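ok new one. same drill as before - structure tokens go in, u give me an amino acid for every spot. 270 of them this time. try not to just spam alanines like last time pls lmao
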């Protein structure tokens, strides 16, 4: 039998070309997206980038309505996981202020964390415009900031510290300014003592403190939710990755759960 070559149908060719065009346009839009470009930037630490699947930076920062021309404060940036993205995103037309621990702290952990962050900031030109201030400072001039963001830090501030940070945040923000919060989410009704011990904070408490300082809750998102997280772990939230406080004990079990269940809240200053 002689095989016959079928002639391509005109409709088939049209659909094929349309599909190729769609792929090209989609690919171009991703490469032209400054936020996606910042997330994909090659200078990011490889281990940090591997956490994207758990931390959803594109979806999170989009939810917080961030724009590349903004003046942004990152509260307590730690080792700079989000700083790597924000510094790149804001490099050309925005400003990033990193509110870190007091460099003169008598607490060795806090002091070392600040020093390590400062070393990171001088390690690459992408950080040239990053300004570092103390977390407990006024952050910036009153009503000079477009957005203040914090990621997984509220549990460290429970008590008077949270009031101070939220108050300074409100003062620094412009009217209509954004306050974006991501935090390990405790079960509703969890008492303060357990929140401090576990590292999980109730959504109700976070919202209550924000409203107390004048913020208006605009929206909540389940972007960073994790239904696998029971929130009942031997070493609290630090049992889970990336901390793995129990080290090798039941590591596969906790790795399968993934990072914590988190609230993602968008507040604004009226």
């Amino acid at each position: 039998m002689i095989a016959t070559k079928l002639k391509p149908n005109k409709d088939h060719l049209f659909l094929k070309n349309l599909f190729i065009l769609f792929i090209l346009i989609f690919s171009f839009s991703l490469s032209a997206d400054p936020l996606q470009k910042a997330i994909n930037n090659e200078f990011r630490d490889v281990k940090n980038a591997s956490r994207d699947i758990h931390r959803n930076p594109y979806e999170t920062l989009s939810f917080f309505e961030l724009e590349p021309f903004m003046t942004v404060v990152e509260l307590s940036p730690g080792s700079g996981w989000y700083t790597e993205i924000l510094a790149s995103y804001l490099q050309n037309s925005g400003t990033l202020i990193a509110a870190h621990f007091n460099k003169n702290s008598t607490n060795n952990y806090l002091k070392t964390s600040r020093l390590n962050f400062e070393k990171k900031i001088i390690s690459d030109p992408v950080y040239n415009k990053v300004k570092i201030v103390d977390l407990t400072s006024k952050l910036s001039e009153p009503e000079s900031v477009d957005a203040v963001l914090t990621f997984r830090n509220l549990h460290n501030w429970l008590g008077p510290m949270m009031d101070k940070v939220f108050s300074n945040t409100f003062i620094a923000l412009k009217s209509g300014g954004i306050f974006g919060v991501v935090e390990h989410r405790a079960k509703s009704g969890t008492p303060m003592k357990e929140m401090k011990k576990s590292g999980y904070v109730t959504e109700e408490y976070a919202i209550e403190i924000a409203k107390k300082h004048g913020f208006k809750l605009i929206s909540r998102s389940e972007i960073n939710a994790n239904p696998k997280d029971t929130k009942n772990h031997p070493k609290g939230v630090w049992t889970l990755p990336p901390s793995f406080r129990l080290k090798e004990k039941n590591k596969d079990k906790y790795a399968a759960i993934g990072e914590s269940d988190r609230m993602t809240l968008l507040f604004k200053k009226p």
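DSSP finds twelve helices and seven strands in the chain. and btw The CA atoms of residues 142 and 172 lie 4 Å apart.
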